[in-house]
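#struct-pred

JT: dropping the chains for the assembly here, can someone run the whole complex?
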Amino acid sequence: MGFARTLVLGVVAAAVMLMLDGAVHVLMAQNPFGGPRPGSAIEPQIGGIVGWILARQSEFYREISGTIRAAKSDGSAVWTLLAISFAYGIFHAAGPGHGKAVISSYLVANQETARRGIVLSFASALMQSLVAVVIVAICAWLLNATAGTMCNAEKVIEIASYALIAAFGARLVWTKGGGFIGALQAERPAPVMATVTHRHHHDHSRDHRHGDGHDHVHDEHCGRSHGPTPSELAGPGGWQRGLAAIFTVGVRPCSGAILVLVFALAQGLFWAGIAATFVMGLGPAITVATIAVIAVSAKDIARRLSSASEGSGTLIMRGIEFGAAGLVLLFGAGLLFGYIAAERVTCL
Amino acid sequence: MSIALRRLPGLLLVALLVAGGGVAEAHPHVWITAVSELLYAPDGSITGVRHAWTFDDMFSTYALQGIETKTKGVYSREELAPLAQTNVESLHEFAFFTFARADGKKQKFNEPVDYYLEYKDTALTLHFTLPLKAPVKPKQLVLEVFDPAFFIDFKLAEKDPVRLVGAPEGCQMKIQRPSDGSASAQALNEQTFADGGANANYGAMFANKITVDCP
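RK: done, full complex below.
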């Protein structure tokens, strides 16, 4: 029974991901900006959704420079620029990225709501754009530093951000590990209460915010369960933890945005570059938010399914949280030590 | 306990799926149009590769950021010399994105020589020569130009992308571009996973492959 349920759950999750991808595919195949692009230059034969996304991404990105040049003489081209930037952002975010992994794992590890997931996603994307603008404004505009200097600064920030992800993950593992071990011990009757109650004190604010009537063993142990209020969502302590997530994800700017900003600056249209950067950030924000909501919902389903079985339900939930925390740590470590090379900045 | 533990891995898998972690794909930020020459010694052995890489509009402008010139918008070879120096030094870390095999055996290159930058029509072109550590005279030489991380998208120029300079009579050249469909995603995916790094060799799918067969 349990295995079958898990299987169904897994299949559902996979199906949702595929459906999303398919929907994006169909929607974007209509080509929202202008006519079809016959004989596109980039047709990497890697087939499927990934290849297609990569090709569109490159197309949109490569149109940005031309559009900025055009905007020098024709102001209306700025609108085209914003439209292209938006499209680029969407496609850029369609692939897996560190933001998605960190934010959704963080949400799963903690008892976070979908609403907070959306806010976190947008805030971290906004911060990413801001960091890119600040770097270019200081390095290129104020100091007139060379690209090499700027790229090295980018590299330093990049490594720092990976270290931050790992540290953030380590902290989650530390907190969640306690809960998991507590739940494991709870499976054996005797020493239950002491350990579990202890953990509950640490998790209080979080659980109360989220304890919205799910028959969640955890909350029942606490004896109190009430729905979240807006003040609790943004209340003291709550945002502090959220801010850590935002900072961890947002501190690393997109190299694409930096290139666009420097290019715009050189064309004397820095403001257009800034506008494009923020519009670009919308794509990742939307996708990360979507994935965050899926993650939170999936966890809710898991919670509902697992709550059917008394004691092991808690164990499963703590296990999932612990696993999600571990993912953040692994992801950060993987990026830091270069096992995941995809997001690396290349300075030439 | 036992039921819960049996279910746990499955649920973690769901979490993993949802988190969207795992394999990440890069996408290019820099585009290079490459023209290359294979250099042959009088005795018919290959001594090195001469590249001329033209960067895209956006990256060219980015690279020129902060470079002082006498005349605005005009960059002489001398003014660009420090940048060219930086370029070749940086390229070292990436093995110059140039991978050669002589009869299946990996070849090594020395540090580049005769390098300079040229600015024309809002695009920078980096010229440099990569001497082989030891000249080779293989039956088959395979030269690949690509960025394994796919931060840079290499494309061979449309017209005459590769020239054989001083090659012996009867040498035949074949060029495979990434868009040929010659690099099948399936095979490469399996291979990359087999290699251990999920995307360590991701860019190989976009490799430009030059094969020279000599009698």
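JT: nice. The domain at 25-213 of chain B is CATH 2.70.170 (Acetylcholine Binding Protein; Chain: A,). Residues 17-25, 180-200 of chain B have pLDDT under 50 and may be disordered.
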